[in-house]
């Protein structure tokens, strides 16, 4: 098996940070890269395992077709629904300016 | 250079279930903001989704109706992207094992029938709605979020890029709407956003195979906008290419007021949805028997129905196509015919006076004041000669305003056609006597002069005289 | 008479016989809490007033001569990632510092049907990410056996409260060992049920395909009863098992005659802590002397479990934690636009370990690396599960250490995340394979720190796990010892 380990580039880290909606301060990037690298080096032991004929396992349960009936249940009282909102207005959740991307 | 357009559609259709896809909140349109929400659709910490059985049923029905293969093993996945109308910042959708794949629909084009392939149909949850404080999203200092629509069930129907004109794209979307209505899985109220399309369009030199760079226009929710946006976009791309430029792969928005598409992108960030299996839901397994049972339970679909009307009743392909374009219309037609009316007359009346009246009042056929029974009866009265077609129009107009049967209207208004030869003869004689000039003109060779005499007779009988008889008797007398 | 040091079954009998009152008991446990809490810090929030009200209700019922349920009037703690309606549920995170759920977790509904006294919300590693409870945004919890040591984690508050006597019982959650490892470190009994045995509805998700809620108690008897209370199918959790819940109290018998016990050779390797190995081997010999048949088995993919776990769990966590964005609940840090607001909120309100795992998870899920990492991990996960399927063709239960070492010093591991992850080697395979496992005390280190024995069962066979554990427990007296918590 070919080793899957990749050295994480600074660009990779920055891309993942954007995907994660996290800021990684410039001075912490080295540390994160080091930790990610050593982590990826460790998990590279998986490349020793031949999985060509193996199906991925996302569910351990032998369960399928779990449904609910199409019956209306009471919704939350709006005050309660909004009770944890950082900012609300006229029964809405309020968010700052949205720039499309 | 001549270019050809390559167009593909992703149609999102809200399903007409009572409740949302993963929770028991009602899906009713138009409720006050944030009143149809619960911990599950608000994506609160700790909540779990449970699939609404009816969503799966409707999606399978749609799959069968659109000639798809139903995947016997299907699952949900998470599609991750941040947006404030998406409470979990991932949409529970389907990725590699959608409920249905590999279908098609046939559309009518100027060159005849054309098959549009359907790549896949998958189930997913709708997002919430953003209300902006300014006129557009960009000039708003803040936005308000309403999560009532969050979790309303959707199917997304993805086509292959098989369309090459805006008209084909429109016909395709109309066909999808019609089929979804027939199988009764969506209200398809486009003004409520029940049915909306993302349009993908690229150009390539005519006759070549390689695809050009595409632009995407999201959330187009009227047939006209589909056609207009694509027409504009073809022109825009053509101009760029002709000037030697390159098309930017991007999402654009259609501004119906200005009739232009606009770039939505302010910065180039690659989308990476990081799909992963939804660990909170279990797979959906559908057996052959279940699929067969769904197939049997489906109503007659538009294509089959159109073929039936053409073969059984001899309707033209055009007429049959219009009659079967909506299930309500087709059922109305069947009911008129069941009443005993001649099918061709039924089609003419439906496409004529009935449609005109419905359109002018903005009514749907199922809300028509003249039901199929009364129209059927009236057409029969015309067939029997009790009234003329012309009187029929008057009777129809009266029926539109009153609940009376056509027989009663005819009787009350004395509209029964005069078919008594003697009675008509007397009127013909008196008109000939009172109008020497047209009579003379006719006799001197101006055959058209007879029209004035017919007009006089019809006026005197208030249109009730059988026109064939009038013509026949008049000619007889004048030619004597 | 002090009461905090007794297990629930003894207290239940005393209550039923009216020898004590629930208010008396609750006050004694609260007094113990006051004696120990400044040192242990097991709780995030103590709900004294409602606890005493609940105790009064129980007393009224007892006075009226009504029968009471097993946990009625007996005080316990709830890990702070289990949603409690109207009571703050923080996940030990600044992100949810003020979050008050408008709904109850299903386990809370089931528990409250028995009307216990809820003392408060127990400390934990932030969003259950960690093995030491040092990752709580509010304060670390200390090990009652030695306050310089960690209590384990992430359910460190729950385990420490039960060990210190500031709760009689507690609920925890276990994603990779978060109930069993702190139980081991604190010398109490902790069980992770089969995936699907207990509803996850209302458990704030860390890694959805691995998370399970379970009991932390003084002994196996209480563990069986608490599991009985919370287990069962839930229509709000699609992944909950529909199979019937057996009567676990039937398992409370001393009987391992003919029981086939497997000892995985891959779990006993060179370099493992000698005191742990001795204690566990002694326990195995004890079970053998009680009539069990012990045999060596092989779980060949064990060495990959940590890699698989630390790819799958962060990937699931990365998506589960996307919802914390400052929009409709939780903390918000203002920004110039919505993206800025979300990014600032998440950067400032998540702790370091949470952010680290989100970055790992999104890296493993991102377009270029999905197949190499996440998909690969899912495939090896199947091989790990198949190892256990094969082993359970030969044996009834598998016995192992719970953790490779006894509790370590606070701060000892915090600078080396990978070293910390490797501590989970004995516990994560069960989560990956969805199996039930219990940890119960089987000895002490020379430093008088508890050592835990892990017993692993077949899917949904908690009964055999409990019977094995009960038989071993009754053969010794570790469960009767409590940490002193020196002032």
Commentary on this structure:
The complex is a heterotrimer of chains A (101), B (480) and C (487). In chain A, 32% of the residues lie in helices and 9% in strands. Chain A is built from three helices and three strands; from the N terminus they run ααβαββ. In chain A, β2 and β3 form a beta hairpin. The mean pLDDT of chain A is 91. Chain B is of the alpha+beta class. Chain B contains 15 helices and 17 strands. In chain B, α9 (372-384) runs antiparallel to α10, α12 crosses α14 (450-460) and α12 crosses α15. Chain B is elongated. The mean pLDDT of chain B is 91. Chain C has a domain at 8-251 and 473-480: Amidase signature (AS) enzymes (Alpha-Beta Complex). Chain C is 38% helix and 13% strand. In chain C, β10 (437-444) and β11 (450-457) form a beta hairpin. In chain C, α5 runs parallel beside α6, α7 packs antiparallel against α15 and α9 (305-320) packs across α11 (352-365).
Instruction: Indicate how many domains the architecture of chain B comprises.
Output: 3
Overall shape of chain B: it is: elongated
Major sheet details of chain C: 11 strands, mixed
Total count of strands of chain C: 11
Count of helix runs of chain B: 15
Helix- and strand-based class of chain B?
alpha+beta
As a percent range, the share of strand residues of chain B is 15-25%
Strand content of chain C: 5-15%
* Parts with pLDDT < 50 across at least 5 consecutive residues of chain C: none
Distance between the termini of chain C: 20 Å
**What spatial form of chain C do the alpha-carbon principal axes imply?**
globular
Q: Strand pairing plus helix content of chain C: what structural class?
A: alpha/beta
Give the assembly state of these chains.
Answer: heterotrimer
Mean pLDDT of chain C comes to 96
- The strand order across the widest sheet of chain B is 3-7-8-11-1-12-13-14-15
Helix percentage range of chain B: 25-40%
Task: Report the mean per-residue pLDDT of chain B as an integer.
Answer: 91
How many beta-strand segments of chain B? 17
Taking all Cα atoms into account, the compactness measure Rg of chain B is 30 Å
**Name given to the CATH homologous superfamily of the domain at 8-251 and 473-480 in chain C:** Amidase signature (AS) domain
Which CATH C-level class of the domain at 8-251 and 473-480 in chain C is it? Alpha Beta
